[in-house]
Design brief:
Length: 324
């Protein structure tokens, strides 16, 4: 009996051959770098659960953005740690807020970067929830005008894309209406369309000082066992005016990324979240795995599942590792 004609190993024999037939090609051009803006000057405080990630004042944010641009990354997404918090997240809409100031500073620096801003109330409320509290629960409709005002303030400061992550029903429509009404019709909306109530957000809550002070977020973030529901959420956000959609987290929801990619025709992103990053960092520090190899394998897997772009705390390192 003759040996089979087909020998797949022929095309794995050398790196040149493997590179020639590689199906998924990860590049810095598809990675977005998350950043945390805090009050003050000359502040750069490392997040203990996320080595290499910092809470930074506006001046330091601009410095890092120069590095981001130099690495060939296309953009950043900004999260704010305000000077004050209240029950309604009022400081989130201020033209003098930390995110608004950071946007303006990046623009004045003439950096060739996309500036994306997270739109949510959790960082700005004293109770840590993503919306206004009424009768002990998060009030969906009462939250929408504040989110719309926050997005509008980001657009006025110079943001390219606003990214609502709150998971309130109807928030994309409210934001689109506010932007269009004030002649910001060219500002795109990146909807956190399928954002799950995940245990992988722990380190982020330290970084953004956004842990809920009571209860949890199960009544508005998605239930992890559900996949079909994600397609409904995505379809609703697109119908309301989302230009791009995102699945969050990434690793436990690769199947959802694939389903969303197959069902919709807008760009699909994925958020390689804080817990996913922290696990790799912790294991690498213990010497249990090769950080570069594992991080690039994870990012490749997320892209292979269908993500057109990835928000990741490994963005800067990945950009360096991917350089020829």
């Amino acid at each position: 009996m003759s040996f089979p004609t087909h020998r797949p190993r022929r095309l794995r024999r050398t790196e040149a051959l493997r590179g020639l037939v590689r199906e998924t090609r990860l590049s810095a051009a598809g990675l977005i770098n998350p950043m945390f803006v805090c009050p003050g000057t000359n502040v750069r405080k490392e997040v203990s659960s996320m080595p290499g990630v910092y809470q930074q004042s506006v001046d330091k944010i601009v410095e890092e953005c120069r590095e981001v641009e130099g690495l060939g990354l296309p953009g950043v997404i900004l999260f704010g740690l305000p000077e004050s918090k209240d029950a309604r997240g009022s400081s989130s809409t201020s033209a003098l807020g930390v995110v608004q100031k950071a946007i303006e500073a990046i623009r004045k620096s003439k950096l060739n970067l996309l500036v994306i801003t997270d739109v949510c109330l959790c960082e700005y409320t004293d109770h840590g929830h993503c919306g206004v509290i009424e009768n002990g629960d998060v009030a969906n409709d009462a939250t929408l005008p504040i989110l719309a005002a926050q997005a509008l303030s980001h657009a006025r400061a110079g943001a390219d894309i606003v990214a609502p992550s709150d998971m309130m029903d109807g928030r994309v429509a409210a934001i689109r209406e506010a932007l269009d009404e004030h002649r910001f019709q060219d500002i795109a909306i990146l909807a956190y369309a399928a954002k799950y109530c995940s245990g992988f957000y722990g380190p982020f809550r330290e970084a953004a000082d956004s842990a809920p002070q009571f209860g949890d977020r199960r009544s508005y973030q998605m239930d992890p066992p559900n996949a079909r529901e994600a397609l409904k959420e995505v379809a609703l956000d697109i119908e309301e005016g989302a230009d791009l959609v995102m699945v969050k987290p990434a690793l436990p929801y690769l199947d959802v990324i694939r389903r969303v990619r197959e069902k919709c025709d807008v760009p699909v992103g994925a958020y390689n979240v804080s817990g996913e990053y922290a696990m790799v960092k912790a294991a690498a520090q213990k010497g249990w795995l090769d950080e570069k190899r594992v991080a690039l394998e994870i990012l490749t897997g997320i892209q292979r599942a269908g993500a057109d772009f990835i928000l990741t705390y490994h963005a800067k390192d990945a950009a360096k590792w991917l350089k020829p």
